[in-house]
Amino acid sequence: MIKKLFSYLGIFSISFLSLLPLTLLYIFAYGLYILIYYVIGYRKKVVRQNLVNALPEKTPSELKVIEQRFYRYLADLIFEVVKMKSISEAQIRKRFIFRNKEQVEAYLKNGQSVLICAAHYGNWEWGTLGIGLNFKAYHYPIYKPLNNPFFDHWFKKVRSRFGNRLIAMRQTLRALQESRDQVSIFSFGNDQAPSWNESHYWTTFLHQPASIQLGIEKIARKTNQPIFYFKVNRIKRGYYTVDCVPLCLSPAETAEFEITEMHTRVLEEMIRKEPAYWLWSHKRWKHKPKLG
After folding, report:
1. Which terminal Cβ of the chain has fewer Cβ within 10 Å, N or C?
2. CATH class of the domain comprising 2-277
């Protein structure tokens, strides 16, 4: 009962904040940055270790700048996510612009479903809303449910605005089967570490051994649906573009793990170019491969 009460109070507070203009929310975001970086030090140890291991070519002073820029952006991102509850269609179209989307649209117009690979880079949450608005197809974002069922239900409704149909990770195959007669888009965030039991492929990612999720590759090779990588670029505060880049248009012809290597290298390149906008607070390398 207490958990439910606090959950609803939290949901009410977020919903109220969402009604405020982004200009005001960004002022709150600066205060949050001071709190989580200088006062609390939220996951600072994890972020620092990740940066040192992933970007060994950077000097300590360069890593410090990246670290601070990451926390500044994380605070902005939190309030941009808060704004999702009330942000208008017009605002999403203005602030999240899709470039080079003609090839994706051509497949959809021809009755061909596509797969989208993305990452927790930039504002992936606005990206989910933007896909639902910009492409004429059933959009199924694959997501990991939150531990709190009350927040999970509320957040799922927020993410489902503009026609999105969220699918829990473990329901992906079922959703694919049920949507086989539809022109659909299934979108995957492929940069989180799989569980130890599901760590079946290891590669080097940002100078470290990393297990990579194989879901999108398995589905693509089985269905031969073309894969596009959606590369998010932060232009300025609250404004993004996303490049719709063909990753693999004939998945059935690829070798095992070839697609996984493709999207891993694309993400690696994005992070090296603009490292501050990736989710460094995530324990991406918590699993280690067995020796021998």
Report:
1. C
2. alpha beta
